[in-house]
TrEMBL record:
Keywords: DNA-binding, Nucleus. It comes from the Eukaryota. Signal peptide: none annotated. This is High mobility group protein DSP1. SMART domains: HMG. InterPro entries: HMG_box_dom, HMG_box_dom_sf, HMGB. Residues 75-142 bind DNA. Belongs to the HMGB family. GO terms for cellular component: nucleus. It is found in: Nucleus. Pfam families: HMG_box.
Length: 188
């Protein structure tokens, strides 16, 4: 259902929200004070929980979903036989006609599915060589200690991010406390 259909079928919800939003609050100061105290307690609980919170290691913590930081010096992963086939066939597409990427991928998948066994064996042999290359380069990379250096850099970066976040939270808490003080002055 579309949003217009949803609005038509649930008119009561929107009208009742509008009604309560337009009407002035009918609570007296005592009732209002109870809710402010509850909010203050909940805020204190949240702040104490956040002090003991430790973010996950190996990931950036600034944004919702981010991939772990990738080492630019690490060897490139090996490609499968299908991807080697696609790389060769894609060059032919560029010469003949332009397709959008989705249609091109579908066409390449059909070509791979209908390809002869000899063609597939050729690309599987290439993929095996590439896999051996990747394993060889990874052992060299880990034996030389480049991987541990990068991991140490990532850990330092994460610690800097955590310190920055804590500073930002402290500034936010100070501004929240200042806002609370002005609110209390207005309410009293």
């Amino acid at each position: 259902p579309t949003s217009a259909h949803h609005r038509r079928s649930h008119r009561f919800v929107t009208t009742s929200k509008l009604h309560y939003a337009r009407t002035p609050p009918t609570m007296n100061e005592k009732e209002e004070k109870i809710f402010h105290e509850m909010a203050d307690k909940d805020k204190m609980r949240y702040n104490t929980n956040m002090q003991s919170y430790i973010p996950l290691k190996g990931k950036n913590v600034y944004f919702k979903k981010q991939r772990p930081i990738k080492d630019p010096n690490a060897p490139k992963r090996s490609l499968s036989a299908f991807f080697w086939f696609c790389n060769d066939e894609r060059e032919k597409f560029d010469d003949m006609n332009r397709m959008n990427p989705g249609d091109e991928a579908k066409h390449l998948a059909k070509l791979w599915h209908n390809a002869d066994i000899t063609v597939k064996q050729k690309y599987e042999a290439i993929a095996e060589k590439d896999k051996a290359r990747y394993e060889r380069e990874m052992t060299e990379y880990t034996n030389e200690g480049k991987a541990t250096l990068f991991q140490q850099m990532v850990i330092q970066k994460q610690q800097q991010n955590i310190v920055q976040q804590q500073e930002m939270m402290a500034v936010e808490n100070e501004t929240d406390e200042a806002e609370e003080c002005t609110c209390k002055i207005v309410l009293v």
